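Q: What would this complex look like in 3D?
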Amino acid sequence: MKKLINKPDDVVTEALHGIAAAHPHLVDVHFNPNFIVRADAPVQGKVGLVSGGGSGHEPMHGGFVGMGMLDAACPGEVFTSPTPDQMLDATKAVDGGAGVLHIVKNYTGDVMNFEMAADLGKGEGIEVEAVVIDDDVAVQDSLYTAGRRGVGATVLAEKICGAAAEEKQSLSQVAELCRKVNANGRSMGMALTSCIVPAAGTPTFDLPDDEIEIGIGIHGEPGRERLKLAPAAEIVERLTRPILEDLPFEEGDNVLAFVNSMGGTPLIELYVVYNDLNRLLGERGITITRNLIGPYITSLEMAGCSITLLKLDDELTRLWDAPVKTTGLRWGA
Amino acid sequence: MKKLINKPDDVVTEALHGIAAAHPHLVDVHFNPNFIVRADAPVQGKVGLVSGGGSGHEPMHGGFVGMGMLDAACPGEVFTSPTPDQMLDATKAVDGGAGVLHIVKNYTGDVMNFEMAADLGKGEGIEVEAVVIDDDVAVQDSLYTAGRRGVGATVLAEKICGAAAEEKQSLSQVAELCRKVNANGRSMGMALTSCIVPAAGTPTFDLPDDEIEIGIGIHGEPGRERLKLAPAAEIVERLTRPILEDLPFEEGDNVLAFVNSMGGTPLIELYVVYNDLNRLLGERGITITRNLIGPYITSLEMAGCSITLLKLDDELTRLWDAPVKTTGLRWGA
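A: Here is my prediction, written as structure tokens for the whole assembly.
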């Protein structure tokens, strides 16, 4: 294992200290329990948005804390769910009197711990709702998940719901919007290489030098199939066809296309993938009206990519375009 | 070689088509010869900023084209200098009557071809100046370079000069500013792994599983020394000490600290590095007042990082903070 770290057990804590030192105008970092919170939290009268999950997916979620997106993020150890006390403290820190929404990726530990934190928060008089994101069409059940896994649509939900919360929409409205993003978003990912969890020190799975895995999870959970390495255009088709069929996306639809690096895949390859995706959708009469291209929900240094499509309407487009100011996404403000 | 590409020879062209499809409101992409130009170029009365170099370093330079940064970027094939005709056409496309500045990384092919393009541009009546960036303290001469290589300070020069050009500073003022950034910026990089050039198909160099290379170039040029894998804190010290001694940076200095991923190193490790760097500089009485952390000048999928320090004064800080709107850097607008 070659990584730029000191001790494997200290990676998350040291990275949080780095974030605290680098971005004091945007976020505060709390330790024991760990969470990252907007520097101006709580914003009075605004729904507070909290997400979280295992570390190793940066910039998600800590890089999405700030104006127009999350109010707080709870980082667990690498690929390990955060604990209810992190989520409870984050919930209390962002409660501005309008309630708190938990945006939860569908992994058993995350769901269970966020449920416990929500109960504890309610016990302290905070109105809490939770929405579970399960946009990955690759497999029905998985290593850490009953039902579908939550992946790329999480980033889009955090941005869009963050904009709605900034407009002072109510908790039930923001939660409904989050369910709408989840209902209209679908994803699938693939890996060229495994990642290495620092505490394990060895690759999470073995993938021969001439093979790829389609439908991989963001923690290296098994996908749909292993194939011999194929051209990007063929890989894009294998990722996109199940996404299109599942919703379904249809001729005339406008979509946000999110082409994501799993970490180790460089930007030049993502644009090759985007070019193939744009052509494939164009042939089916589907128009990409918004896009996001880069490493936003990663799996440490895994090489590979994921594609997320979100069916857009005027409301989702307007909220996507609204100002956002985080370390991971920033525009218009 | 496992990459998300179709044919190795088509990577750059297909990625440019992807960029053209993804960002039509920001940039236009010209083919044969290839260059990326601001959608609103030429801006009348503004100095035009042109940079370029081999592809494989994305988002540099194409991702830095837009308001407040570059007017055009000329991408060569992967790790291959662009040609004078690309540079000449880009120069003509961005000439708004106030002259054009070429920002050139110090690699022999880049320098020679930009000189030729400048001569051709002058022959067509365009005022052209060029500044060569040579901020890498690792080695004196290198595989493709007489003198020091140009690396991370290029990103900072493009941002700062872009802001000055946006203020309608004159060509001589913007060129002088570019020389000032270069004079006050120093960098060094390191690699954990090699990268693989698509057309070659095999690693550019061999690095054993337990070794790292300090002082590596962005095309895999040899560095200063090979070491056994070491903790991040020790690597940060080996990169930073030569940087500090060279300028020198001294107690009381304010600096911009740029912690860059070579491509394959994930963000969580960059924050571990930033944390160590922040502590090291603090111990020496040097204050980080601005920072940039992420993959900005990469070497395909190479794992590793580089550190760039830029000594700041009020002028450089103000121009760094000015609005910028590109796909790679964006704030305040």
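A: To summarize the key features: Residues 185-321 of chain B form a domain with the Hypothetical Protein Tm841; Chain: A;domain 3 fold (CATH 3.30.1180.20). Chain B has two domains: 12-184, 185-321.
Q: Very helpful, thank you.
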